[in-house]
């Protein structure tokens, strides 16, 4: 039992010692606004970022800095204007890398360099052979080892050339394989350099918890330049991503017991000197104003009249608002009066009509639109007035109106039923198949065309027959004089003589031919 108590006391003492040591070694932190930027109003109206300068293809807006857009072969960067004045620091970078493809290029880099690295250099937009630290977020796999996206820290003393073929794997201090592309929330990186120990914490952007960091890189005995510039650069290649920097927050770290340097305030002598100079300038300005007024009294008479004081402006606004309200209220009162008048006239007219109808008739409507009882109506009625209608005529008129309404309802019901049947027929035809429906329709059209042609031909024949029957008979042809008997015999005798002569001539020729042989 005593041994267990001793062990508990020993463990408690060790834990207290470690806690006290950690409390005593916690650095003093101070936010450095001259080395930071964040939204909103990240960029000014002229497009500049306070205490920073950007170039290349970088674009600054009120919400972020697009270091490299999603276009091929783009480079850009943003660097702090002033050199650091503290030894140890922590930088928290919030960024987004988004693209359409599964693989992106080339990547984004954080820099702490003795001199600004530019905006269009060969190393992710920065210059090569830098003197300082580079934390590179490489999204393209140049060596085809399937080890990207990759985060790596590289320390360069100003003499090394970045190894692009191997993605800098031969030069890095440490690294980790983390995916930072196309995340639902912005990704974050917290780079801390304190007492020659470099630590990189990474937020994957999968959650919206600001404390969801994990250790990515830790390297000891890292010696960086005492003072330097902060920067962010990015580059694209054949593939392209949007590289957006949302914020860059820098905090200086100071060893416990060492107070951070304070900004020197002007001493009392300087304050008195500045106050004295201001008073002299104010007196000189007042004297010049009085001299000008004495020399130009006419200009002084209307001075201030063209300008409006705050009280005058407020009174004018109040007066204009009240005037507008008064005009609206007056317009509303006028419209309400018109509505009330119309309502009263309608009520009086209806009461008169009800009174007369209950007495057995319909009032006469005069030219002025007023109802006149039938007992006071003139007979015959005046021009522009309507005769009195009896009660049975009114009932008949109402009955006819009801019948018209019922007929309209029946017609509507019939049309609805017809529409439903037509729709059902169309749906049935569509269910039978397109080819069958089309063929049947074509046969019906062909048959109808043949019937129409036959009827047309029959109509034409009937019309022609009727026309022939109705037309008068044609006259008989005129008979010319006949050939006389003498002429006929003479012509026949001549033909006979010619035939006989030809026959005798042919026989004589044949006989002569026989004698020759």
TrEMBL record:
The keyword Nucleotide-binding does not apply. GO terms for molecular function: D-mannose binding. It is a single-pass type I membrane protein. The lineage of its organism: Eukaryota, Metazoa, Ecdysozoa, Arthropoda, Hexapoda. Residues 1-19 form the signal peptide. Residues 286-311 are annotated as: Disordered. It comes from Cloeon dipterum. Residues 29-253 form the L-type lectin-like domain. This is L-type lectin-like domain-containing protein. Its main location: endoplasmic reticulum. GO terms for biological process: endoplasmic reticulum to Golgi vesicle-mediated transport. It is found in: Endoplasmic reticulum-Golgi intermediate compartment membrane. Keywords: Disulfide bond, Lectin, Membrane, Signal, Transmembrane, Transmembrane helix. The keyword Electron transport does not apply. InterPro entries: ConA-like_dom_sf, Intracellular_Lectin-GPT, Lectin_leg. The chain crosses the membrane at residues 483-505. Residues 286-303 have a biased composition (Basic and acidic residues). Pfam families: Lectin_leg-like (PF03388). One of its GO terms (cellular component) is Golgi membrane.
